[in-house]
Design brief:
8-stranded mixed sheet; 16 strands; Rossmann fold; single chain; 9 helices; globular; 2 domains; 4-stranded parallel sheet; alpha/beta; 27% helix
């Protein structure tokens, strides 16, 4: 019998290892402040022993809405150290679902490996009746252990479904089918018969193909997101500039429309050297770089969610402040 694949499990926190006050605590479990102990998540899934040799790797455990850029940078270094030391054939990262899509895209842009890295979370705490996390972890390990997962970028596995870290987004607050890739759909499935089945491969460059290597960085340029709405003025944009933002992403209305007052503030910010990226608060569809945006030196976000565009702008600013070069990056990644 051939030797089982080796999968490292990095537990960063979130709903998946949270413990509620009882089995029907599906909403306020975070307020209980309890988590599974080290090793306890793995102990609840003995079936993993037939799929892979799984090693739990220590990392700080935080709610995903508590992450900062330094956590991302340290996570990248942790992943590379595991692969550099040849400790695993693939990695699974448990993560809170609130910002899991942002971490997935950041890793998709920055990891320098073709080995599988799979993020996984849950919509119900570990203590819940019908907890989804245990099966999600098993399927994520199955995906990370599958040789066909190599070279596909950072992946996210939830509810039997395999998504590209670039395309996936959270679309519901409590439903187990919360995650979708609205424009492009999933890459495949960790199916009911135990097989990992892929149907698509992303055309966008990722991981080892990108120009971003953050392993020696200790911080990232500040980039803020400003949401547009009826009556929005330029106060939040001016405040972001005053706070030291090097870039601002506009979550505009429709196909990327800030209000007139916001437009004026964006022009003021651009004159101070701030990179302006025009995105949309709409859940899907591209924002295109019109002739007017080109004249103003603004960048368009393509079909990235504003919070993902923020990650790309921040990484882009470690390389250049040329809007045309940054637009090339949006078109490429």
């Amino acid at each position: 019998m051939s030797e089982l694949p080796r999968v490292a499990l990095i537990i960063t926190g979130g709903t998946i290892d949270s413990v509620g006050k009882d089995r029907l605590d599906l909403a306020w479990y975070i307020e209980a402040g309890k988590r599974l102990n080290t090793g306890e998540l793995l102990a609840q899934i003995p079936e993993l022993k037939s799929i892979a040799n799984v090693e739990e790797v220590p990392f700080r455990r935080l709610p995903s809405h508590g992450l900062v850029d330094k956590d991302w940078l340290d996570l990248v270094r942790t992943i590379h150290s595991i692969f550099d030391e040849n400790r695993a054939d693939g990695i699974v990262i448990t993560h809170g679902t609130n910002t899991i899509e942002e971490t997935a895209y950041f890793l998709n842009l920055t990891l320098k490996t073709d080995k599988p890295v799979v993020l996984v979370g849950s919509m119900r705490p570990s203590s819940a009746l019908g907890a989804d996390g245990y099966l999600n972890v098993l399927e994520a390990v199955r995906v990370a252990a599958d040789p066909n997962s190599r070279g596909r970028g950072a992946l996210l596995v939830m509810n039997d479904t395999i998504f590209s870290g670039r395309d996936v987004t959270k679309t519901a607050t409590y439903r187990v089918q919360a995650f979708q890739a609205r424009d492009l759909g999933p890459l495949g499935y960790a199916d009911a018969d135990g097989k990992v089945v892929y149907f698509h491969r992303t055309a966008k460059k990722h991981t080892a193909e990108t120009e971003f290597d953050v392993r020696n960085l200790q911080s990232l340029p500040r980039v803020d997101v400003v949401v547009s709405y009826v009556g929005a003025d330029g106060v939040m944009i001016d405040a972001a500039v005053a706070a030291g933002a090097k870039g601002i992403v506009s979550a505009g209305t429709g196909a990327g429309r800030p209000t007139p007052a916001e437009d004026q503030a964006f022009d003021r910010a651009a004159k101070q050297g701030v990179i302006i990226c025009i995105g949309t608060r709409v859940g899907s569809g591209r924002v295109v770089r019109s002739p007017g945006l080109v004249r103003r030196g603004f960048v368009a976000s393509d079909n990235l969610q504003p919070w993902k565009a923020r990650a790309l702008v921040s990484l882009a600013l470690t390389k250049t402040t040329d809007p045309n070069e940054i637009q090339r990056m949006f078109d490429t990644y």
